[in-house]
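note to self: dont lose this again. the chain is below, predicted strucutre after it. 174 aa total, dont forget to put it in the shared folder this time
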Amino acid sequence: QAISMAYHADRSTVIVCSDKVRPTAESVSKILGKLDEGYGWVGLYRFAFFGFRIELIQRLGPLEERLKGGGLEDSDYMFRLKEADVAIFEDENESVNYRYEPTTWRKSSDKFFSTKWRWDNASFVERLLPEQPYSYPFMDKEHHLNNQVSYLPWSRSVLLPPSKWLLSAKIGSH
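---
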């Protein structure tokens, strides 16, 4: 697996794992493979174990920092991926060991999320607030310009049942 990881290191790939997830080498390889297929965001246990290329963060910005206390970062980023026409791959059928423990989220992010987005869980998503500008670079500009990544379109997304409504939902801005 070290060879596979070294091969992907020059592509600025990031894999994030919750402290409740125990991934395998095979699951890491699956994330890398799906990224190579053109998915912008690959989650094998939703957003508890996921991967992306730094270029995606350059393009869309980081996870929403105004969502304090945890929660809803996944929904926010999914809406942003849809806006940008970038496909996501979600899968929970993996043999990823997830430890079910009490959450540490404070759920104080609900109010802010509803001031940023309006949605109906069936047919539309509307942006109400713009992204917050950020001043920290995720890679130098020359690297970014020389390493543009092509992503599959949103319509090629593979979503779990709670998120499938987003495939056909209209998206707009206020």
